[in-house]
Each structure stands twice: as C-alpha cells, then as structure tokens.
TrEMBL record:
Superkingdom to which the source organism belongs: Bacteria
Identification of the protein by name: Uncharacterized protein
Residue ranges crossing the lipid bilayer per the database entry: 12-31, 43-64
Keywords associated with the record: Membrane, Transmembrane, Transmembrane helix
Species of origin: Streptantibioticus ferralitis
Amino acid sequence: MGLALMHHTGLLLAEIAGLLLVFGGIWLAAAQIPKMRHPTARTIVAGTAFAAAGVLLIIAVHWGHFG
C-alpha cells in the first residue's frame, strides 16, 4: 500500500513549489547585488528553496495524481 494524495493536495503542493521557485529566483538575484549583505547566505537560502521546490514537485507528480 503506497502513499496517496488527493488530486487537490497534489495541485496545492505544485503551487507551493512554484512559489518557492519564484522566491528562490528573486533571492538568488538579490544575492548578486554588490552592496547587499551576506551574499553567501542568500545563495544558500535560494538553493534550499530550489531543493524544497523540487521535492514538492516530485511528491505532487508521483503521489498526487498530478501531471
């Protein structure tokens, strides 16, 4: 017996993943501004957001009947 998600839950996870991608992209761009503080930390946050988005998309596609 495998893990199953409702179709709506899969869509919600995909939407959250999309928001994380947008957030990560903006945060990564902000890390490249020369006068911003902590560019390395901003890059780490952006990378973590991209990784979380990828995990959520995998869950949504595999178990959420999405796609």
